[in-house]
Each structure stands twice: as structure tokens, then as C-alpha cells.
């Protein structure tokens, strides 16, 4: 059974269909793995083991992932009747009334939902250390961060508790923990996965739903399950040529790839570990027949981006806090929030509607300037997934907000611009530090081209199979 847990989700589904294992045996093995490892890692904050086992009798047996265990991030990914805290004591973990569209599709596909994973309060930082639930630890070194905001999901997958888990990404929150935990993390195009019915968009379209996995084929197959437009959604991503799972077996052809080893803005300290990771990935892509050269979009050098992006995120956080106050019948006081979020909410409340619109319009223009680089003939941009080397827990301090915001800004310098543009991007686990900690590299495609990302990622995985040294 231990070997079955080492399989990816596609492999586990095949084992169930072939009769090698029953859904109950697979679920019980995953539960045992969670119970064995989660005391150290703190990845799962709301287990639902008994309810999951009770649901096995109603499992759709012909579904593509019938019997495969999965964990849901406790931010977005709402499940009817289950607690939902979004990393905060303010929400008090009260149950939600209905499944999100994505969760509904996961259940229809036969996934067995074992619980919900840890996340920072409201997903507003890149390390999972919420005051309400405590820190999630990295399976590669428990002194280190698993990243955020999908850190609980990433730690659980990297440790072998489940083969895949849901995630979301508003400024890097799929790609950052994927990088730190040695996983595949693909942020889809804006509108590819519906956030309904609870939301039309997250963070003015910056936020997208996805997964953290150990293989490219799992990422592709899981996105096939949840992707799709629902009536009333504000965005609809361009149609794909077919299922993403089919793209894993197709050659991408010769592609034109630009790469960056240092951020073009110049205000992000260069890290030699990141440069080594990107350089090695560029050499690998070149060996696979692609045209690879230094360079990237000139818009990335614009120093005004972080201010506009951060202001919009803070405004959405302030709106969420106001909504929580209304739903519970009394306002949420700033001292009920973690200090980082209190500062963001306070700053957002000083902004006018006109200032918000000007920031939104600035982002619109930024998106067009970024897109021009791909329109001019480039296929992919290669750069670090994370703007800093792997970092220990506490590196983003809760009591020094200036330092915390500065370090967070450096960390998301390569990810948040892609949230603003709505383009798809994938982090691939291609590098290790001397201490054995994972470092991901990121590939960014033009809007709507997840198919191209999956083809290239699968080609890379075949050429250099990903190592998963933290599996239990």
C-alpha cells in the first residue's frame, strides 16, 4: 500500500480500476499517512476522515478518479457542510452552505475528499504561518517554510499524504509553495476555472484556482476536471484545442524562449541559487531543441507595478473584512486581524474609488505591454518561480511589518506580474540547493496557452524526471 501512495493520482485511479486496490483501502492508507506525518508538518487543519469513508458507498464508480484521495485548500474550494476558516480566527471555521463549482466537479470525478489544508490568514502572504492554526512545515526540512498561501496543500503532497491537492494563486500562491516543496504548480489562465458560485473573481481577476501535484500529467488531468465556464462568470478563457491530459504526449515543436536570471527592475536582490536554477533550465530547454536567449518583457522593469498591484489586493482584503463583519453582525476590529492584514486594511480604507480605478486602469495598460512580448514572436518566458532562496519559518516576521512587506515583495517579484496579466504559468521542480531544498523555475505562456505549457513541461519531465525526496 505504501507503494500505491507513491503513485500519482492518474496511477492511483488506474490501480482502482484494475482492482489492485479498493477505494476504501486507498483512502485508509492516505488517512494513515496523514496521521503519521501531519503531527510534524501541520498541513491538514480540518480532517474529515469518518465522513469521507462514509461517502465511499456513493462513489461514482465509472468516474475518472474514482477512489483517489484529495485534500482541499481552506481558502476558496468551499465544500458544503464543512468548516471554512481561510486561515483566520475571525471566520471561526463555520460551515458553508454549498459546494463551489470546482469542488462539485471533483466529487463528480470520484475524488475522495479527506480534509482541508492550512493557509495564511486570507491568503495574503507567501508563507503558511497563521496565528489561528500555527505554521506548516516543509517536508524537506521542518525548520523551513512550505510557502504560501497553498502551503498546507504543498506540504501534504510533497510528504506523500495525497497525490494532489487543490490550491489557488493570487500573487504566486500555487507557484511559490510548489517551488519550495519540489512540486508541479500550474496557475491557469484567468477564467479557466470558475470561482463560483461564491465569487465571480478574486482580487480583481488576479486570483486563479488550480492544484499542486507531483507530475505534469496529474496537473493536466485535474485541470481538465475543473476547467470550464459557468453562466454569469465574468471571464471565459480561450478554448483549448482539446483535453490538457492529451497534451502531455505531444511534442511542443521548436519554441522561442526568453529567460531572466535577475529581475529586470533591479530592485530585487539577485540570488546566485536562482540564477543557477534558471541557467540550468535554459540549457535543458536548448538541449531539447528550443531557441533560448536572454531577455523578457520590458514592462517587467516598471517600478510602479508593486504599488498598484498591492493597493488592489489590500482593497479586496478590506472589502472581505467588511463583509465578514456584516455576516456576523458586528464589525471586525483591526486588532482581530493579524498585524499584516490590519495594516493592509487600514491603508486600503484611505483610498478613494477614483484611486482604485486609476490602479485598475494602470494594470490594464501593463497587461497590454506584457502581452506585446509574446505577440512579437516569443512562446515562453523562463524565470525563477520565487524571488528569494528557500527560507526558514519566521523569515517573514509578524512583528516587523516593514521588513515583512519588503521580503514578501521580493519573493513575489516574478509571480505577481503574471497574476496581473492573467497568463498561465507553471513552476517545475528542477533544482536543489546544496542543502537539498527544492528550487522551482517558472515558465510563462501567452494568455490561454496552458496546452503549450503542458506540452513543454511534460517534455522537460521526460528528459529530467522530477525527484520527490520528501515522500514518506
Helix residue percentage: 25-40%
DSSP, total strands:
13
Within the largest sheet, what's the order of strands?
6-8-7-12-13-11-9-10
Proper CATH architecture:
Alpha-Beta Complex
Rounded to the nearest angstrom, the radius of gyration is 21 Å
Low-confidence region ranges: none
Structural class designation: alpha+beta
- Give the overall silhouette: globular
Task: Please outline the major beta sheet.
Answer: 8 strands, mixed
The number of domains = 1
Specify the CATH homologous superfamily.
Answer: Amidase signature (AS) domain
Order of helices and strands: HHHEHEHEEEHEHEEHHEHEHHHEHHEEH
Question: End-to-end span in angstroms?
Answer: 12 Å
CATH class assignment? Alpha Beta
State the CATH topology: Amidase signature (AS) enzymes
Give the amount of beta strand, in percent. Answer: 5-15%
Mean pLDDT: 96
Count of helical segments?
A: 16
Amino acid at each position: 500500500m505504501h507503494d500505491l501512495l507513491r503513485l500519482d493520482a492518474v496511477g492511483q485511479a488506474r490501480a482502482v480500476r484494475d482492482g489492485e486496490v479498493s477505494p476504501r483501502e486507498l483512502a485508509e492508507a492516505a488517512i494513515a499517512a496523514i496521521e503519521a506525518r501531519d503531527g510534524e508538518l501541520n498541513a491538514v487543519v480540518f480532517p474529515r476522515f469518518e465522513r469521507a469513508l462514509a461517502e465511499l458507498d456513493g462513489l461514482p464508480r465509472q468516474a475518472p478518479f474514482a477512489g483517489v484521495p484529495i485534500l482541499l485548500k481552506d481558502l476558496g474550494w468551499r465544500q458544503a457542510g464543512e468548516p471554512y476558516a481561510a486561515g483566520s480566527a475571525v471566520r471561526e471555521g463555520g460551515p458553508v452552505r454549498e459546494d463551489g463549482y470546482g469542488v462539485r466537479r471533483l466529487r463528480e470525478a470520484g475524488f475522495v475528499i479527506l480534509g482541508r489544508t492550512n493557509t495564511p490568514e486570507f491568503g495574503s502572504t507567501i508563507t503558511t504561518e497563521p496565528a489561528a492554526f500555527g505554521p506548516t512545515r516543509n517536508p524537506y526540512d521542518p525548520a523551513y517554510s512550505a510557502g504560501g498561501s497553498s502551503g498546507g496543500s504543498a506540504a501534504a503532497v510533497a510528504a506523500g499524504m495525497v497525490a494532489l491537492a487543490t490550491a489557488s494563486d493570487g500573487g504566486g500562491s500555487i507557484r511559490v509553495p510548489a517551488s519550495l516543496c519540489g512540486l508541479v504548480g500550474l496557475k491557469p489562465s484567468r477564467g479557466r476555472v470558475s470561482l463560483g458560485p461564491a465569487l465571480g473573481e478574486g482580487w480583481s481577476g488576479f486570483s486563479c484556482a488550480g492544484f499542486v501535484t507531483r507530475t505534469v500529467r496529474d496537473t493536466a488531468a485535474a485541470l481538465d476536471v475543473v476547467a470550464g465556464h459557468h453562466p454569469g462568470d465574468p471571464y471565459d478563457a480561450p478554448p483549448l484545442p482539446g483535453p490538457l491530459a492529451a497534451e502531455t504526449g505531444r511534442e511542443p515543436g521548436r519554441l522561442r524562449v526568453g529567460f531572466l536570471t535577475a529581475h529586470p527592475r533591479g530592485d530585487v536582490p539577485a540570488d546566485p541559487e536562482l540564477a543557477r536554477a534558471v541557467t540550468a533550465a535554459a540549457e535543458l530547454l536548448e538541449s531539447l531543441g528550443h531557441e533560448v536567449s536572454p531577455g523578457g518583457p520590458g514592462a517587467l522593469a516598471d517600478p510602479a507595478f508593486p504599488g498598484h498591484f498591492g493597493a488592489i489586493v489590500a482593497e479586496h482584503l478590506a472589502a472581505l473584512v467588511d463583509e465578514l463583519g456584516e455576516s456576523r453582525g458586528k464589525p471586525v476590529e483591526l486588532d482581530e486581524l493579524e498585524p499584516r492584514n490590519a495594516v493592509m486594511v487600514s491603508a486600503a480604507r484611505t483610498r478613494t474609488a477614483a484611486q482604485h480605478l486609476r490602479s485598475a486602469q494602470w494594470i490594464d495598460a501593463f497587461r497590454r505591454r506584457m502581452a506585446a512580448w509574446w505577440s512579437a514572436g516569443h512562446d515562453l518566458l523562463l524565470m525563477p518561480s520565487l524571488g528569494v532562496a528557500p527560507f526558514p519559518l519566521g523569515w517573514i516576521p509578524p512583528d516587523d511589518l516593514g521588513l515583512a512587506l519588503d521580503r514578501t515583495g521580493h519573493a513575489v517579484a516574478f509571480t505577481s506580474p503574471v497574476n496581473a496579466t492573467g497568463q498561465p504559468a507553471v513552476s517545475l521542480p528542477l533544482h536543489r540547493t546544496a542543502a537539498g531544498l527544492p528550487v522551482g523555475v517558472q515558465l510563462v505562456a501567452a494568455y490561454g496557452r496552458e496546452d503549450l505549457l503542458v506540452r513543454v513541461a511534460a517534455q522537460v519531465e521526460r528528459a529530467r524526471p522530477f525527484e520527490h525526496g520528501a515522500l514518506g
